[in-house]
């Protein structure tokens, strides 16, 4: 059962896109899918398990949304111009990585308690990702670069030495893998924005809006970060103050 967005119907895509989609195989999961999520939770306190359970819906929602964003952009590029085939392939590869993240996080979520305010968390997360969309792909992908950079900061917060997530090998490996992939997505999204073209003023405006919306969601679940032993204020400051890339 999806948290925010049902997976895209990839069987129903245009026949001319099918071969390109099939040529983007799922990425190597580096053994992460073989790990038993429930084993990872055994050393955690009840409070930490609850805190993780409150954090996961937003992260799963982000990944579900990202699968749509990157697969749709691959479709759009593939149908518009044959010279964009390399860009299309990259979009599909990233969509496959987002699928892997979604599977890993949803498996973990399925072993965690459902937070009391699940509906409120889900509504806020869903709204954030719906609002990130734009009919202008340059604006949309600029916002995606901001959100993926935010996911990197969340993973960095969870990988602080004092954080419970960092101390459990399988959780640490998942967070490291997601952070590494997301850093690649930020670069790919910004390259894509450069190709599409977006004035600097619009980048500043987009960053301001999307950062404040992301920070709103993170502030709402901020106490979960504290229970896990990491500092949400530091993470939020890093998101707020990140330099706007000059390109
Ligand atoms: Fe992801
Ligand atoms: Fe991503």
Fold and architecture overview:
The protein is built from eleven helices and no strands. With 247 residues, the protein is mainly alpha-helical. The mean pLDDT is 94.
**Main beta-sheet annotation:** none
Distance between the termini: 40 Å
Mean pLDDT: 94
Name the hetero compounds present. Answer: fe (ii) ion
Q: Count of helical segments? A: 11
Structural class of the secondary elements? Answer: mainly alpha
Could you list the spans in which at least 5 consecutive residues all have pLDDT below 50?
none
What is the fold's blueprint, element by element?
Layout: H1 15-22, H2 37-41, H3 46-80, H4 85-110, H5 118-132, H6 137-158, H7 164-167, H8 169-196, H9 200-220, H10 222-227, H11 232-241
The protein binds fe (ii) ion (2 copies).
One fe (ii) ion binds at residues 66, 98, 148, 182, 185.
Q: What's this, in brief?
A:
The chain contains 11 helices and no strands. It is mainly α and 247 residues long.
What would the keywords be for this entry?
mainly alpha, single chain, 11 helices, binds fe (ii) ion
């Amino acid at each position: 059962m999806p948290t925010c967005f049902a997976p895209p119907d990839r069987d129903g895509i245009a026949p001319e896109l099918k071969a390109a989609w099939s040529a983007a195989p799922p990425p190597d999961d580096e053994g992460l899918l073989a790990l038993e999520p429930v084993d990872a939770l055994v050393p955690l306190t009840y409070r930490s398990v609850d805190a993780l359970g409150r954090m996961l819906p937003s992260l799963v929602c982000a990944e579900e949304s990202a699968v749509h964003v990157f697969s749709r952009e691959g479709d759009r590029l593939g149908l518009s111009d044959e010279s964009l085939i390399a860009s299309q392939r990259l979009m599909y590869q990233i969509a496959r990585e987002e699928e892997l993240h979604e599977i890993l996080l949803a498996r973990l979520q399925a072993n965690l308690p459902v937070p009391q305010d699940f509906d409120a968390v889900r509504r806020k997360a869903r709204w954030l990702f719906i609002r990130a969309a734009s009919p202008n792909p340059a604006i949309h992908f600029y916002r995606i670069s901001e959100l993926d950079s935010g996911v990197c900061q969340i993973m960095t917060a969870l990988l602080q030495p004092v954080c419970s997530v960092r101390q459990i090998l399988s959780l640490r490996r998942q967070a490291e893998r997601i952070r590494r992939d997301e850093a690649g997505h930020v670069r790919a999204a910004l390259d894509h924005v450069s190709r599409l073209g977006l004035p600097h003023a619009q980048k500043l405006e987009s960053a301001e809006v999307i950062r404040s919306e992301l920070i709103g969601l993170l502030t709402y679940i901020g106490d979960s970060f504290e229970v896990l032993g990491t500092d949400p204020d530091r993470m939020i400051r890093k998101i707020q103050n990140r330099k706007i890339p000059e390109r």
